[in-house]
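Intended use. Records like the one below are meant for learning the mapping from a protein sequence to its folded structure. Do not use them to infer anything beyond what is encoded.
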Amino acid sequence: MPEASQIEYNLRELAEMMVRDRGLTEGHWMVLVRFKLAVANVETGPDDMSPSAIVGIQSVGIQRATAPTPLSVDASLLTGARVPAASARTRRKKK
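Structure written out for the chain above:
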């Protein structure tokens, strides 16, 4: 199998992995992303400058959702603590 150079997860997959990692068994959880913002005057040409915003990711985590959403996962429906969501999904597809 060729070596992967890039692996992506959608927000639900990330939420599933983090819920399993923390051993959570109840509640609806969704991904939380904290951003940090910086501003600067950026040169956009030889004689031009524009006020600009620079956005960075400060942290990624999970937060309890007050109600189910398209991006949340129900911890009570997940089985197998500390099993990555992608692995579980792959096993289900092979059956």
